[in-house]
Design goal:
The chain is an alpha+beta fold. It is about 25% helix and about 15% strand. A two-stranded antiparallel ribbon has the order 1-2.
Length: about 130
């Protein structure tokens, strides 16, 4: 079902992005003013369990695009069982040894800081991800 759902979502998302690019106001195209974040509420283990379902993972795939997001790149890393592996927080690239595993709090803190909101005010102590939003 995941393949079918993705094949239905991606054309709709592409059309949405195209429409944002076409529409403008006094500040330029809407695509240049809006950030789009598409994510899941949970990740899934890559193999079926005994009930023909998939276990949940704390890792989730995320897609970022639009204003202030560097395009055309993929960041992060997973292991054979889709578990998060360490990355360099400055570049978003995999590290051989060292590095840290990115968390949802890190993403949230980075996005809040990027719009001038102090994440600590809302109980978010995540680390800044300069590769996501400089």
């Amino acid at each position: 079902q995941q393949g079918r759902a993705s094949s239905e979502l991606l054309p709709v998302l592409a059309r949405f992005v195209e429409e944002l690019a076409k529409r403008t106001n006094s500040h330029g195209s809407l695509l240049d003013q809006v950030r789009i974040i598409a994510t899941s509420e949970l990740g899934r283990f890559p193999k079926l369990n005994s009930e023909r379902g998939k276990h949940h993972f704390p890792e989730v795939p995320m897609l970022f695009m639009g204003a202030g997001i560097p395009g055309g790149r993929a960041f992060g890393r997973t292991g054979r069982m889709m578990e998060a592996l360490p990355i360099d927080f400055n570049t978003g690239r995999p590290t051989g040894n060292g590095g840290s595993v990115m968390t949802l709090d890190d993403v949230g803190a980075t996005l809040l800081r990027s719009v001038g909101v102090d994440p600590e005010l809302y109980g978010n102590s995540g680390r800044h991800l300069p590769f996501l939003v400089p």
